[in-house]
Prior knowledge:
Distance between the termini: 45 Å
Number of strands: 25
CATH topology: Neuraminidase
Mean pLDDT: 80
Oligomer: single chain
Strand content: 35-45%
Low-confidence stretches: 1-44
Largest sheet: 4 strands, antiparallel
Helix content: under 10%
Number of domains: 1
Radius of gyration: 18 Å
Amino acid sequence: xxxxxxxxxxxxxxxxxxxxxxxxxxxxxxxxxxxxxxxxxxxxxxxxxxxxxxxxxxxxxxxxxxxxxxxxxxxxxxxxxxxxxxxxxxxxxxxxxxxxxxxxxxxxxxxxxxxxxxxxxxxxxxxxxxxxxxxxxxxxxxxxxxxxxxxxxxxxxxxxxxxxxxxxxxxxxxxxxxxxxxxxxxxxxxxxxxxxxxxxxxxxxxxxxxxxxxxxxxxxxxxxxxxxxxxxxxxxxxxxxxxxxxxxxxxxxxxxxxxxxxxxxxxxxxxxxxxxxxxxxxxxxxxxxxxxxxxxxxxxxxxxxxxxxx
Length: 310
């Protein structure tokens, strides 16, 4: 209780709201995430901010070495629970449950943080993950992006394996997922699965059974290409099916139409080039939230005017 009290006092810092004009809308940032309650007295450099998700009823949750925290729309702390490991990925379902990705295991917890189910290492069944980096859920499915195995695994919400998606579809477009670095993400919207294929500089869209529905990619002779050798890193889908794809190297978030046309770049003057891991989530109003692991903060963008969105 002592650690939790100290955490709450530190976490509820001032919120900085900056009006940035039509180009960026606005963003808010909550500075100075506190040290992990597991490691009181350790230097602040040990703090990790890794992931974010927004539930269907617009509850905002962030995860890292401190556990999982719920914050309000002004990015002020509402609640917190601790975890046995640092969360790599995070998703929330319509029932208020969380799905937490560790490198080699998945946990399902209720809204109070109580463990409901664990699979993978130390959990039920013989499922073996290599390096989990992304999770997406809908009412009856859990998708797990494993960067080590270069596969998206589909489970029921009870952890029952349903099928695997490797990206190796028939035809010339079925390259398989190429994941040179530990950044591999997935998102779901309207019965479609969106997956990053970072080694191929692609965003791909699949049926739940793994049939390729479409993709877009950028080439090095295109000024709008994904920079570097392994991008994009994270995805978030807007209510109108615009797609946010974040990038490392020259770190920023690019907004695309549903057909893959780039319409807006966010954060070029905000994120240092060394920044990696810009996980993102979108609420029902179309507000975009991005974790900034370099500055240890969450940034909020309203892009409706700049992107020409309703």
